[in-house]
Design brief:
The complex is a heterodimer. Chain A has two domains: 54 residues, no CATH class; 225 residues, Orthogonal Bundle (MetI-like fold), CATH 1.10.3720.10. By secondary structure, chain A is mainly alpha-helical. In chain A, helix 8 packs across helix 11 and helix 14 runs antiparallel to helix 16. Helix content of chain A is 70%, strand content 0%. In chain B, 39% of the residues lie in helices and 26% in strands. In chain B, the strands form two sheets. Chain B has a six-stranded mixed beta sheet, sandwiched between helices. A four-stranded antiparallel beta sheet of chain B has the order 2-1-4-5, with helices on one face. Chain B is an alpha/beta fold. In chain B, a hairpin with a 2-residue loop joins strand 1 and strand 2. Classes of the chains: A mainly alpha, B alpha/beta. Chains A and B meet through helix 12 and helix 13 of A and helix 2, strand 6 and helix 3 of B.
């Protein structure tokens, strides 16, 4: 190699910001036109939006009379914050919900900080112990006053439904997926029927059935809580979708992995838990998180059976005569909060994938 | 032969649908015996050794491994799998586990060995196949030859009495074949009972007590290496040998 060829650098136009722009934005005449049109649309949309949300908005005050500017009136959200976060949960008992919010936040932050010890314990706490604590905290018992579920609402209710759905639907989904691939015809047939029935029905129908039809089939006097019925519906609905996602992962496993496990003497369950599921779940992490995100957003449908989730309560407070005409703020706020949660899950999924990558 | 019989196959048959993949297989393997099985692809040689640890089910005849007959009873299958180690063409290491965990997993979960002991033993076998310095890496970070040696160590960690090798060097680059064969020769010299499906005739000459040639699901020829190469009887064996030597 000669000296010149060693020291040669890439042509200037290929590198740096100018190079990047040339390559990606202005490479041909029609790309240039598209870029300019795009910039024009950004110019049309972004500045007014930001003015409405931030610069022209009203943040302080207590009534609608304080909202005199041309922008958004965030006073509306501020004044109704308690309803939006807790629903109609009794004021004296809010500390119970707050404890749960606190434990949840602390555990999640702990799990997100890299390289901490005992993450496994925190995960087990979050998935097994925390839900049990929540049952007592939220509904009462053990000396705590009973709070009926019809008073639950707002972000609190949304998180309860999504949380229960996410935590319970994955194990059920995994069992259904294994069942569908089982060599035993009865197990396989039953799993398949279960999955296809739940997948074939819209969630709205499931919720309607849970809310209106189900009591008709029950003997008189037997009364399941409406929220529990909705939770079971959401859980099985989500489990059926997850089952198919997990089955996809199982099918992607090379036959050799099964054979090597069997040759080593592992029984079916040990093979599944130690070898097959860790690998196949890893493959489908993006799809699983996708299902969770869909589930999280679908929780808004419980509004139609009279449960006031996060979005439902925002709609509800918008109909308060004191605050008529501020539903835009409500919807933008709801969208922003939903986006934060969903985007968070999406980012976590990417991190998990990177962390679990072993180069194969 | 006076020594203990490890494997006995009596008129074993197997079909894949209409295809008769194993046709009246009779085979006796004594303790410490090293058997090389060769033959054209599709001759049933892999199926034969895969029947011994029940990765394939035979449909007729009987297979007895160390006094236990292979039946549909899960206990007999589990018992035999505990005694028989297997090495695959595609290594089949568990990609989500480190090499050390690959080796200690089955001893911990099947043999119920304490974790520390299982890991010590795993390190010992990894040292024997000379990849103890790779113990904490994942399979994908190793070369093919290293992966196959790790797979051999993984099988040995169960302290099997019989080792099955299903074309252990066929997926390897030429320069890596020797390192794997060296490990296998070492194992043979240690007195392990081995059944090896391979086309490595150099290896067969060096270590085999018996070479079996299979074609169309049948054992066509079964001889000691000297006779096998010097005077094969069947035409099919001669043709095969002329093609691969």
């Amino acid at each position: 190699m000669s000296d010149t060829s060693k020291n040669i650098t890439p042509p200037v136009i290929e590198i740096g910001i100018v190079g990047w722009m040339r390559k990606n934005l202005f490479s041909t005449w029609y790309n240039t036109i598209l870029t300019l049109i795009g910039l024009y649309f950004i110019y049309l949309i972004i500045p007014p939006l930001f003015s409405w949300i931030f610069f022209d908005a009203t943040f302080s005050g207590t009534t609608r009379d304080d909202c005199t500017s041309s922008g958004a009136c965030w006073v509306f959200i501020k004044q109704n914050m308690k309803l939006i976060i807790y629903g109609l949960y009794p004021s004296d008992e809010l500390w119970r919900v707050n404890i749960a919010y606190f434990l949840l936040t602390v555990s999640i932050i702990y799990l997100l900080i890299p390289n901490l010890k005992y993450k496994g314990f925190v995960g087990v706490f979050l998935l097994l112990i925390f839900p049990i604590i929540c049952i007592f905290l939220f509904s009462g018992g053990l000396g705590l006053e009973n709070v009926e579920t019809r008073l639950w609402g707002g972000l609190f209710l949304t998180l309860v439904i999504a949380g229960v759905g996410i935590v319970l639907s994955l194990p059920i989904g995994i069992m259904l997926a294994l069942g569908r691939r089982s060599k035993l015809p009865v197990v396989s047939l039953l799993s398949t029927i279960f999955i296809e029935i739940w997948r074939g029905v819209p969630l709205i129908t499931v919720l309607f059935m849970a809310s209106n039809m189900f009591p008709l089939f029950m003997p008189e006097g037997v009364n399941f809580d409406k929220l529990i019925r909705a939770l079971i519906g959401v859980m099985f609905f989500s489990a059926a979708y997850l089952a198919e996602v997990v089955r996809g992962g199982l099918q992607a496993m090379p036959k050799g992995q099964y054979e090597a496990s069997q040759a080593a003497g592992l029984t079916y369950w040990k093979m599944m838990v130690l070898i097959i599921l860790p690998q196949s779940l890893k493959i489908v992490i993006p799809a699983i998180i996708g299902s969770f995100i869909a589930l999280f957003k679908d929780t808004t449908l419980v509004l139609i059976i009279g449960l006031f989730d996060f979005l439902g309560i925002i709609q509800f407070v918008g109909t308060n005569p004191d605050w008529l005409g501020f539903s835009h703020e409500g919807y933008v706020f709801a969208a922003a909060i939903f986006w934060v949660f969903c985007f968070g899950m999406s980012r976590y999924s990417q991190r998990l994938e990177k962390k679990l990558d072993t180069g194969n | 032969m006076t020594s203990e019989t490890m494997i006995e196959m009596n008129s074993v048959h197997k079909w894949f649908g209409e295809l008769h993949v194993l046709n009246d297989i009779n085979l006796k393997v004594a303790k410490g015996e090293k058997i090389v099985i060769c033959g054209p692809s599709g001759s049933g040689k892999s199926t034969l050794i895969r029947c011994i640890n029940r990765l394939e089910e035979h449909q007729r005849g009987e297979i007895v491994v160390e006094g236990t007959e292979l039946t549909n009873d899960n206990r007999s299958v589990e018992k035999i799998r505990g005694e028989v180690g297997m090495v695959f063409q595609q290594f089949n290491l568990f990609p989500h586990l480190t090499i050390l965990d690959n080796c200690s997993l089955a001893p911990i979960w099947v043999r119920k060995l304490p974790k520390v002991e299982a890991r010590e033993k795993a390190m010992e076998y990894l040292r024997r196949v000379q990849i103890d310095d790779q113990a904490h890496k994942y399979p994908a970070q190793l070369s093919g030859g290293q992966q196959q040696r790790a797979a051999i160590a993984r099988a040995l960690c169960m302290e099997p009495r019989i080792m099955l090798f299903d074309e252990p060097t066929s997926a390897l680059d030429p320069e890596m074949i020797k390192e794997v064969l060296d490990v296998m020769v070492g194992l043979a010299e240690g007195g392990m009972t081995m059944l090896v499906v391979t086309h490595e005739m150099g290896f067969a000459k060096e270590v085999a007590d018996k070479i079996i040639f299979m074609d169309e699901g049948q054992i066509v020829e079964s001889k000691n290496p000297t006779d096998f190469f010097a005077n094969p009887e069947s035409e099919r064996t001669k043709t095969f040998l002329s093609q691969i030597l």
